[in-house]
Records
---
Amino acid sequence: MRLILIGFMGSGKTSVAKLLADKLNLKAIDMDDLILKSSGRKSINEIFEIDGEKKFRRLETHTAQQLSNKNNVVISTGGGIVMDKKTMNYVAKNSQVIYLKLSFDNATKRVALKKTRPPLFKNIQFAKKLFKKRLPLYASYADITIDTNEKGVSEVVDSIIVELKQR
Ligand code: S3P
């Protein structure tokens, strides 16, 4: 089994991946963690500030390629992965892609609770534009869509398991 979590910043991909992996006896892998390790920087913010977004995207593609043959995993992706076809094809191959859907208002609220804001969520107007652009892409790649607006992490995980059992 190979599960891929996609969705906008703040949709809970990393936390959901951990609990889902625990419950299904799979390994949770966070792409941003691997990208950070390969960058030699201290934070994702630092990669964006010092190396730029282009470099981040190159590392993201490379990380996706390295993970493309891993099985028995739940992979949490970064919110921008759907912007690049090649990167998305590496992760989506032989996988079930699960889209954690939430409204822009809820994404804003959840991101505000984080210790550090993701670099592309520093300007709310800009983030809203990204959200609108990405929404149809998330939907187009999704095999399973979970509405996470009124749900906590464990409810989201339970909903995913219900959906997986129906397949
Ligand atoms: C990004 C989302 C971030 C991280 C990077 C770029 C994006 O991950 O990959 O800051 O383009 O939406 P999260 O979605 O986990 O915040």
Note: The pocket of shikimate-3-phosphate is lined by residues 9, 13, 32, 44, 78-80, 118-120 (CB under 6 Å).
---
Amino acid sequence: MEILRTREELRNAVNSVRGKSVGLVPTMGYLHEGHLTLMRKARSENDVVFASVFVNPTQFGPNEDLDRYPRDPEGDAKRCESAGVDFLWMPASPSEVYPEGYATTVHVKGLTDGLCGASRPGHFDGVTSVVSKLLNSTRADRAYFGEKDFQQLAVIRRMVLDLDMNVEIIGVPTVRDTDGLALSSRNKYLSADDRQNGLRLSESLERARQAWAKGERDGATLEALIRQTIETGTPNEIDYVEVVDANTLRPLREVPSNTPVAILAVRVGSTRLIDNARLDRAEAIRQLG
Ligand code: AMP
């Protein structure tokens, strides 16, 4: 595996693999089994695999966790190598990504208004802009994203379609710990108590899935069930809980859908966690005790 630190090294690496199929896995590092699952899938479907590790400042708001976001560049490099990555783009500094005078933003309307877009203004502009740059600079044929960030995946699919980007976007199901907690780099912030309280997220999703399986179709009722499961007996603070259509992200409260996804963001201790699940799937999200 080759580690690329400058834009010139990245350009040379991309030029050296012309004619081969390229898979890309963009990440912010502090890699876990969720990220590695994306990388292994990319490995199995492409001649060449690029991964990126870059904590992108433009997708963090002024009061968010940019400065304390966990980092482990050496460990990440080892993990990427073990997952079969050929080239790891780990910019030496943000100026390798954003040259002097950088002035361009990619904005997807509509899909970015609600959910995380409402509580994190500007976040998705940061994401779509940096992902556009990565898709252009690596000339990826396929790019891999986790369903864990469900809204992000929907926004990126919209962008690629709208801008005629010649890349296939592949969504990968959320990887969870054995107790049901969705893997996230931010889980590092959780205390033992927080971790216990955090289990209410996947529990609430599983309860909603079971309710859907039994025929409950009312968005408000499903949302209330989720809220109750997350909040009862915990200090968890809900940012949002919504049951929406998986493609349009429009709430079931407004439009019925056969492809419902429950999607939520909750502050657990000082950490904001996100999770989601398709309610129409037969498999359990996790076992309930
Ligand atoms: P991040 O480093 O958090 O920006 O995530 C990089 C990529 O990994 C994104 O496409 C995420 O959706 C994906 N990802 C993060 N956590 C998981 C998980 N638990 N399961 C599957 N994919 C994940």
Note: Residues 13 and 264 are 39 Å apart (CA to CA).
